[in-house]
Write a structure and sequence with these properties.
Largest sheet: 4 strands, antiparallel
Radius of gyration: 12 Å
Strand order of the largest sheet: 1-2-3-4
Number of strands: 4
Strand content: 35-45%
Distance between the termini: 15 Å
Shape: globular
Structural class: alpha+beta
Order of helices and strands: HEEEEH
Helix content: 10-25%
Length: about 60
């Protein structure tokens, strides 16, 4: 299920560590109380790779998409 602005805010507020899937390979990764960032998963030669897109506190959901 795709993330919404409210779900992102709740995940950042709760600060429970984990990955929250948005769709199309975009994830919100929460590591702690003040640590959260966006990641994009892609495959190259059938091997998964992760590309960091920046802080979730700096970039909105729309900007990350």
């Amino acid at each position: 299920m795709a993330l919404t602005v409210k779900r992102v805010a709740k995940a950042l507020r709760s600060a429970t560590p984990g990955r929250h899937f948005d769709g199309q390979g975009l994830y919100l990764v929460v590591s702690g109380k003040k640590a959260a960032h966006w990641e994009r998963r892609y495959e190259l030669n059938h091997k998964p790779h992760w590309l960091g897109l920046g802080s979730a506190r700096t970039f909105t959901l729309e900007e990350a998409r």
